[in-house]
């Protein structure tokens, strides 16, 4: 086989897209509540009873609209997944940064966000501290603007 048939051409490029995303009714209500009250809320399914955070307009399992009566959940939560990021992204802190996906008390699902206040200088020690099952607490900023970054997770120990 000739080299011409097995070689690959790589064409460099970059996309820089600025856009605005419509959050939708459930996410808008959730983010407004985070902004105005400094709490996490969840949407219960009237059919299966699962309580989802972030809230949804409908249950993905039962395909029925969720209840309009949203309970507060957390602020304590349990880590279900964790990682340390080493890549720069707009809007994120400078690497390294910790991310956890945590299930708040009173909810059946989890929500991801930054984990702050953890020493990331030793990767192995940091991952041990933010292990699956670790207790975290939602910490809300003093000035909130209606974005998911209005809160972050902190280790509860």
UniProtKB/TrEMBL annotation:
Residue spans crossing the bilayer: none
Domain of life: Bacteria
InterPro entries attached to this UniProt entry: ChsH2_Znr, NA-bd_OB-fold, Thioester_dehydratase-like
Domain annotation ChsH2 rubredoxin-like zinc ribbon: ranges: 35-64
UniProt name for this protein: ChsH2 rubredoxin-like zinc ribbon domain-containing protein
Organism of origin: Nocardioides alpinus
């Amino acid at each position: 086989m000739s080299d011409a048939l097995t070689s690959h051409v790589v064409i460099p490029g970059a996309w820089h897209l600025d856009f605005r995303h419509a959050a939708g009714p459930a996410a808008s209500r959730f983010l407004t509540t985070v902004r105005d009250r400094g709490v996490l809320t969840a949407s219960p399914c009237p059919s299966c009873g699962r309580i989802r955070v972030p809230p949804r307009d409908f249950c993905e399992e039962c395909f029925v609209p969720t209840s309009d009566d949203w309970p507060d959940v957390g602020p304590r939560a349990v880590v279900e997944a964790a990682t340390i990021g080493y890549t720069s992204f707009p809007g994120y802190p400078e690497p390294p940064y910790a991310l956890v996906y945590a299930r708040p008390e009173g909810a059946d699902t989890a929500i991801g966000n930054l984990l702050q206040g953890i020493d990331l200088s030793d990767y192995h020690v940091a991952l041990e501290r933010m292990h699956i099952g670790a207790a975290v607490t939602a910490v809300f900023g003093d000035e909130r603007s209606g974005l998911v970054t209005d809160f972050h997770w902190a280790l509860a120990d």
